[in-house]
């Protein structure tokens, strides 16, 4: 491991002073915040990420889960994933989110990982971790080994000629469907980022994962009042039942008027560089019967731009079936 300096501030202001002067995005910065460390420390040990300084924020007072005006819930950035998933309010009002968190990683990792860190975890692409292979995400301009290599777990939507890696989080897929809002603070003050705008597609700059500036700190994630508690689910399809990343995952949420869909939310994981939503597919369901036929048509719309590569074309059919199954579970419709 390479040498780095370590600083542990006791306030948000002191933490921000620790990254003052940083420019660019958080994925490019030489100074990194660290809390649970469940991803960053692994990447440092593998020599994939090489920060010169770590600012340990684990003791900041950002670990509460609390009510907000309007009926929503605020998840502290430093609340642990396990505490969030098992919070009685999250389980009752946002069961899709609780289920998504519990589908991710192992119990030990969920006990350490924080909500803010979950948003910033990096891809599990083999070529990103293997420093002996080209990777535009790890070292811009070197190429993409996955394009012509083993790409079974890679993207079928939103990819570019520079990168076909996928975002690994389960929690973020549910947050995308819920239309959560990320609260951040930095040298230019506080701001909020709609979840759809937080992560990026790769384009020609795949090394940049998010719109978070290098001198900004995530303080909380706001959940809206609408949690789709009556009709929602999170479905994760993976190679084994535990401790595996999603081949395809689906966060599905419906608001029903009898057996007619009033509002629909759909987000996919394991298929793109960010949690994938398509408003056209959600609009396709509005006003339609909650039926397998309607769900199949929505899946078709959502996947109309999907493109497979040499080893992952199976994901297109898998995603279509997973979408239909998840929507059927959310609606309480029998599915063969």
Unreliable spans are none
Number of helical regions: 13
What proportion strand? 15-25%
Intertermini distance: 52 Å
- Helices and strands, in N-to-C order? EHEHEEEHHHHHHHHEEEEEEHHH
The averaged pLDDT comes out at: 97
**Helix-strand category:** alpha+beta
Largest sheet composition = 5 strands, antiparallel
Per DSSP E runs of 2 or more residues, the count of β-strands stands at: 11
Work out the radius of gyration.
20 Å
* Shape annotation: globular
Strand order of the largest sheet: 4-5-8-6-7
**Overall helicity:** 25-40%
Relevant terms:
3-stranded parallel beta sheet, 19% strand, alpha+beta, 5-stranded antiparallel beta sheet, 336 residues, 13 helices
Describe this structure in words.
29% of the residues lie in helices and 19% in strands. The chain has 336 residues and is α+β, with helices and mostly antiparallel strands. Strands 4-5-8-6-7 form a 5-stranded antiparallel beta sheet. A 3-stranded parallel beta sheet has the order 1-3-2, with no helix packed on it. A 3-stranded antiparallel beta sheet has the order 9-10-11, with helices on both faces. It is globular. 48% of the residues are buried.
């Amino acid at each position: 491991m390479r040498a780095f300096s370590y600083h542990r501030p006791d306030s948000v202001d002191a933490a921000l002073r620790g990254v003052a002067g940083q420019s660019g995005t958080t994925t490019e910065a030489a100074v990194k915040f660290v809390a649970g460390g469940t991803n960053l420390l692994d990447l440092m040990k593998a020599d994939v990420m090489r920060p010169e300084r770590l600012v340990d924020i684990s003791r900041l007072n950002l670990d509460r889960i609390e009510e907000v005006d309007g009926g929503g819930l605020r998840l502290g950035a430093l609340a642990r994933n396990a505490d969030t998933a098992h919070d009685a309010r999250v389980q009752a009002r946002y069961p899709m989110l609780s289920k998504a968190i519990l589908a991710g990683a192992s119990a030990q990792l969920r006990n350490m990982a924080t909500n803010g860190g979950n948003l910033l975890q990096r891809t599990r692409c083999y070529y990103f971790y293997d420093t002996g292979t080209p990777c535009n995400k790890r070292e811009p301009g070197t190429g993409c080994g996955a394009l012509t290599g083993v790409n079974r777990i890679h993207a079928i939507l939103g990819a570019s000629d520079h990168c076909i890696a996928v975002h690994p989080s389960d929690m973020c897929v549910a947050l995308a469907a819920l239309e959560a809002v990320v609260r951040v603070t930095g040298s230019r003050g506080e701001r909020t980022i709609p979840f759809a705008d937080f992560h990026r597609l790769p384009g020609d700059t795949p090394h940049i994962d998010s719109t978070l500036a290098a001198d900004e700190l995530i303080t909380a994630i706001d959940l809206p009042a609408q949690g789709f508690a009556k009709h929602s689910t999170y479905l994760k399809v993976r190679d084994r039942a535990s401790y595996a990343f999603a081949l395809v995952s689906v966060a599905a949420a419906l608001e029903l008027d009898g057996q007619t869909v009033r509002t629909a939310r759909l987000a996919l994981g394991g298929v793109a560089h960010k949690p994938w939503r398509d408003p056209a597919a959600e609009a396709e369901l509005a006003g339609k019967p909650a039926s397998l036929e309607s769900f199949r048509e929505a899946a078709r719309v959502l996947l109309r731009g999907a493109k497979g590569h040499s080893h992952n074309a199976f994901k297109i059919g898998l995603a279509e079936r997973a979408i239909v199954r998840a929507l059927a579970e959310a609606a309480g419709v029998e599915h063969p």
